[in-house]
Amino acid sequence: MAPKAKVNPKPSPSPTPPAAQSVPLEDLFAALHRHAQNSEYELAARVADQVLAIAPGDEDALRCKVVALIKSDAIDKALSTIQASRHLPIHLKFYEAYCLYRQNKLHEALKVLDGQERNSMILQLESQILYRLGKMDACMESYDKIQRFKIDSLDLKTNIIAALIASGRSAEVQETMDALKVKATSNFELAYNYACSLIEKKKYAEAEQQLLSARRIGQEMLMEEDYADDEIETELAPIAVQLAYVHQLQGQTEEAIEAYMSIINRNLSDASSLAVATNNLISLRGTKDVSDSLRRLDRLIEKGTGARQFQLANSLDFKLSTRQKESLYANRLLLLLQANRLDQAQEVISALPEMFPDGVTPVLLQAALLVREKKAAKAEEVLIHYADKFPDKSRPVLLARAQIAAAAGHFQISVESLLKIPEIQNMPATVATLVSLQERIGDFSSAAAVLDSAIDWWKNAMTEENKLDLIMQKAAAFKLNHGREEEASQLYEKLVKSHGNIEALVGLVMTAAHTDLEKAELYEKQLKQLSGLKQLNVESLEKTPGARHVEGTHAVKVEVPEDVKKAKTKKRKRKPRYPKGFDPANPGPPPDPERWLPKRERSSYRPKRKDKRSQIRGSQGAVVREKHDSIAPATSSSVNGPSSKSGQNTSSSSKSGPQKVTSSEQSKASSKSKKKSRS
């Protein structure tokens, strides 16, 4: 904001210092204007202080000082200046809210904006705060109000498209861009946002091409603005991460992992892109290399200060969206469960509800921890309590409860959970699951009622892919298997009359054979005859006694054509597989053919000869006395010496017989002492 020159400043009630009076106010305001025009904001703040020293409470000087401090990223000083001037009749609420927004005190910033006139600047700041808080519906309401002012700003239009995608309204992006009169090629941010909308609509090939276009546009624009190569790479890092994510969604796992690792190894200064790449890499790995994944996440999540137990490193709390932060903490908790670190997982669980009070992720992760602790009933109780308390967020919670209950054998609870989600109750997968669960319970009538309800719903459904035929065919097969041939016959007949399905015709003939033989014969004529059964006499086949069981095996000669014989005898030549580093041209000496045999069985084995030269001759009593004399000092040395090496030296100093006995006695004593120490 460029200050205007002042000729008649407001009179100040307090006396001015002599040093400040020496410079005329006109010159100070001219210097202030010059510094603002040249973006020398620190110098502008100093000159504004000189003006305020001469004329305390001057509104223009105070505004210039606050703006200069904000432009120079001295947010704390700007906020303290605003708070120190609250006694003055100067309206600085917008700047105060902006400073609180920069300090990530979002709720306080919204409170400051309450009651203020909703001009374009207030609405833009409010929408940015709501976007950071993840309140996308309220954010879009603010942007709708901003559009009434008809502000022609490309940055504002880019933010509107980004908020539209974040609120889950990607289908409206193209229409909104046409209304705002912008194209995806206007700048690389818009091209990136448009690619994100294509990803949400699962148009991955188009999204990949759009991301490549965004990278090309960004490189050209930033090179024209004289950005350095590393700065360009940092600015375009989100596009690189999103390209890797598209590869991941397309099932190109190796390409995605290679792209993520390339981004991480380059160690870009864009901390948010590095965090997203790390998180996506960990989710792509799954349960592989859990320890390495935990080490990577520990660099992003650290112990908090004050009341907060955890916080993100590198100011990521201010840079990532709420959904991205939830994903980081959720992946860390799941990895801790995989590593069986339940105590650390419990610490994370206790901190999540305060960090994400409006999210469903904390209660789902709490249920996962309870299941890991084999407390399935407690997990079901926690989930149903949350679903009853927040019915608008109950769908993923009820699905999780149904899965946990089915895995634990609580089939009735699983059925009740699925029946509480009316929007998916008639989908083929849900119908199949409900029928299977009720069959396990033994409630066949309820299973049939689920199928009948689904048939009625699909009859009136106005969808592109109608599943009525599929549901009717499965319902007919179910009723046929459970003794309801009449109902199954009616369903099969409706299918035959509506579409003429061969499978339905076969089913109708089979069911009508039990209930209405004339109808079965009538529809049987519509079946096509098999080519191999034209000369087969059915009556004579029925009179045959059937196949006989013959004891023993009999060889049956089957004539095989010559071409089939040649095809069978022809063996496929395969290229031999060699060990790693083996050169078939220089194989070296052949391996020992007896290398798999024990050494005693090899032809080259030669047993060691016993040394009979040191044998002691004499009477039996003399040998026993010598043994007794030699054992006594050896035993005392093994008791007195704590080191096992001294015992080894004593036994290996000589090859005589008594000392061999000593070593065996030593090993027995040491083995007993080890067992005692273990107990």
Computed Rg: 42 Å
Shape by Cα distribution? extended
CATH superfamily of the domain at 152-269: Tetratricopeptide repeat domain
- Would you count the extended β strands for me? 2
Give the strand order, joined by hyphens, for the main sheet: 1-2
Helix content: 55-70%
How large a portion of the residues is in β-strands, by DSSP E? under 5%
Report the end-to-end length measured between terminal Cα atoms: 80 Å
Q: What is the fold named in CATH at topology level of the domain at 152-269? A: Serine Threonine Protein Phosphatase 5, Tetratricopeptide repeat
Quick one: biggest sheet?
2 strands, antiparallel
Write a structural description.
- The chain has 679 residues and is mainly alpha-helical.
- Among the domains are: 18-90, Serine Threonine Protein Phosphatase 5, Tetratricopeptide repeat (Alpha Horseshoe), CATH 1.25.40; 152-269, Serine Threonine Protein Phosphatase 5, Tetratricopeptide repeat; 427-524, Alpha Horseshoe (Serine Threonine Protein Phosphatase 5, Tetratricopeptide repeat).
- The protein has 36 helices and two strands.
- Strands 1-2 form a two-stranded antiparallel sheet.
List the helices and strands and how they pair.
Elements: H1 18-21, H2 25-37, H3 41-54, H4 59-71, H5 75-84, H6 93-102, H7 106-113, H8 120-133, H9 136-146, H10 154-166, H11 173-180, H12 188-200, H13 204-224, H14 229-235, H15 237-249, H16 253-266, H17 271-285, H18 290-298, E1 301-303, E2 310-312, H19 316-319, H20 322-338, H21 342-355, H22 361-372, H23 376-389, H24 394-407, H25 411-419, H26 428-441, H27 444-459, H28 468-481, H29 485-499, H30 502-515, H31 517-524, H32 538-543, H33 562-569, H34 620-640, H35 644-652, H36 657-678
Antiparallel strand pairs: 1-2
Helix pairs in contact: 2-3, 3-4, 4-5, 5-6, 6-7, 6-8, 7-8, 8-9, 9-10, 10-11, 10-12, 12-13, 13-15, 15-16, 15-17, 16-17, 17-20, 18-20, 20-21, 20-22, 21-22, 22-23, 23-24, 24-25, 25-26, 26-27, 27-28, 28-29, 29-30, 30-31, 34-36, 35-36
Family: Belongs to the SRP72 family.
GO molecular function, one term: ribosome binding
Protein name: Signal recognition particle subunit SRP72
